[in-house]
User: What shape does this take?
Amino acid sequence: MQDQNECLSNTLKRKLKEFLSQGRNKFYLREFVEEAHITIVEAEDFFLPLLKKNEIEGSLEVRCPSCGASLGTYKKYLDIPEEITCELCGEDFPRSDDFLEIVLEVKGKFFRPQEKPIEPNREKALKIRT
Ligand SMILES: [Zn+2]
Assistant: This one.
């Protein structure tokens, strides 16, 4: 069981690095879950410790249930107004988990690409040449 968790964690770290190498240091939790083929619970287990260590910053983006417009991001759930009116389509809707996207932004240095990326293939090629 422990090994499995360890393995999943490493897989997700790799996935996160892949996101970063594509310049995606800010992404929706939903996107990550879909692309890593994991469950929300597995994603939470992985991200919660990183959120606590401030490696990653989380925020909440309010999305209009009618037209899908992004209506601002908030740090805390309770910062979101209880009643929201969409600026685009005029839809009124209450504050709810259903109309939120969790946004994750990587802050920590841990996951930043190294300044000198190790290129094992090139190293090998050099060795062959000498
Ligand atoms: Zn709308």
Q: What stands out?
A: The longest helix spans residues 2-21. The two ends are 46 Å apart (CA to CA). The CA atoms of residues 60 and 77 lie 7 Å apart. Helices lie at 2-21, 29-36, 40-52, 120-129.
